[in-house]
Amino acid sequence: MKPKLRDVAEKAGVSITAASMALTETGRISEETRRKVLTAAEEIGYKRKQKHNKISNFNHVCVLVSSDYKWAFIWKFIRPIIEQIETELKAYNLNLIMIPIAHNSSPDVLFDKIISSGSGAVISLHYGSDKLLSRLENKGIPVIVVMKADYQDRYYSVCVDNFQGAYEAGSHLIRLGHRRIAYVGIQRPDLPALSNDRFIGFKKAMDVNNLELPAAHIFEFEPGQIEKLKKDLQPVFDKENKESPTAVFCLDDDLALRVIIALKDLDISIPEDVSIIAPGDVLDYNLTYIPQITTMQIDTSYMGKIIAQMLINRLEHTPHIQHGLKVQQHLVERGSCRAI
Hints:
By secondary structure, the chain is of the alpha/beta class. The chain has helices at about 5-10, 15-25, 30-45, 75-90, 105-115, 130-140, 160-175, 190-210, 225-235, 255-265, 300-315, and strands spanning about 60-65, 95-100, 120-125, 145, 155-160, 180-185, 220, 245-250, 275-280, 295-300, 325, 330. The chain has 3 domains: about 5-45, no CATH class; about 55-160 and about 300-330, 3-Layer(aba) Sandwich (Rossmann fold), CATH 3.40.50.2300; about 160-300, Response regulator (Rossmann fold, 3-Layer(aba) Sandwich). The strands form 2 sheets. A 6-stranded parallel β-sheet has the order 2-1-3-4-5-11, sandwiched between helices. The mean pLDDT is about 90.
């Protein structure tokens, strides 16, 4: 009698569901369980059904993008990523569709939207929900999580190396002769890993060069609190104070823009009085009213290509080992830093 799936499960000591996921290469099971099932199937002569290329089973890939107003400023950053993903997927006759999400979007509602769209794969930008992502993976819909570093140990992911970028940004200021450098951060509860990695990377650059970061030189504020920022900066950035910081490291360039406005109101010039640098590149520097800020830039088109290639690799080969990639940043000098 031909061996059945239940025979494989019994031989491997697992449930029929786990045996099915191992043999069809779907769902999320441990590598040990997968090996047990495959070994058991081989020993009892169970013939697996021929696996079809998953790409031929659907026409759409969806990308989850935030529709919250507070994230509108990053559109310039993510647009090239989406455009490159779309270009890469067209070569495989796959269409990219966008599903807007809000911070309070229900995972169940999003799941239904994805299923009803006919998408066979998902790319999630700056968004993560274990309930949604695990449910999609268990249904055999592969997910690539982008720019969500706190999920990289659980899902295929492409992130930016924020630690290294911040370390290099801090090191650039130090090479220019700055020894008193202030840090200005902002609360980004949706991206806690980004804030942590950039602060730690900057602090590492200070520590390696035996430089102190006094608590009085660390500033954090909520979006929109420009007056509070100005009030906090005023006693520290005083031209008559010989211990005032000569440079500022900002969490990102959107925040750096706000710092420049606040310092200008305090009669502090950039870079004549204070240099400023930021990892991340979300502002449009082609606009004449945007001040030119030295940043650690991310090649977003290259990032989009990597995301698409990772997804295609999952669809064509169904790799068993989870992968996470980090994209490096490179310095773009725009004149907001000077040597002292």
